[in-house]
Design a protein that fits this description.
single chain; mainly alpha; 15 helices; DUF2189; transmembrane; DUF2189 domain-containing protein; transmembrane helix; membrane
Amino acid sequence: MHRETIGNPLSWSAQRLAKLGRSAGEAMDGIGSHDTTLPGINDIGPRDIGAALRRGIDDFAALRTDVVIAVALYPLIGFVIAAWALNAGQLHLLFPLAAGFPLVGPVAAIGLYEMSRRREQGEDASWTAALATITGRVLGPVLSLGCLLAAIFALWLFAAHGIWAVTLGPEPYDSLSGFLRATFTTSAGWMMIGIGCGVGFLFAAIVLCLSLVSFPMLIDRHVGVPVALATSLAVARRNPGATALWGLIVAVSLVLGMIPLFVGLIVVLPVLGHATWHLYRRAVA
């Protein structure tokens, strides 16, 4: 009977280090773009967005069990963040944290894009099979682009804190009811809402244009971050109306998903994730 051996500790360690080095090399190589030629960009409209949403719902219905397992952690993360804000005296960051969730949502949906791609190709579309294909070539660009979105999210929280400090702050509030009362019954509170919504809209618009098709493209093609970002910006520039409509749909859907203690995100996130893949298919030739 054949028996596998791992050899002596030195040779085994050398093999593992070599494998780790190859994976790291693939990840670093995938971040850059050797070919800077952008793919063709298609015109898209409300019909394309409607079709993408229908395909997203169809994917969710077909992969429901696997999808729920893959995204069930995110509502829990949202609940934990909200509990931290309430208990740490950071009530003014509660809404910015919830509103900023979509800024990093494209990273959370990376497995959903792969599941839709695999189902489209007639392959095994389970979440285990999808995650197994996210290797160094894909992981490096995805993580680097995810770090960019995380930095934008951090800047948004910093801006939100500054807006609160010059309007309702800087003294913290002892209770949520007191904070809400000051927010909606004082001129300073309404000023905070107005400025915060305006600044938040700018952050959301930037992230929407950067991530419209970039993450699905990194899954689908051997391109680096520069080409993926440039393609996403090109799609947004060529289709401003459709991009704005898609952003509105995403924002409203996420708000509705967060209302029942973030539980609705178990449905909203996968549907939007799958739909994003199909929107990418329609927008990029």
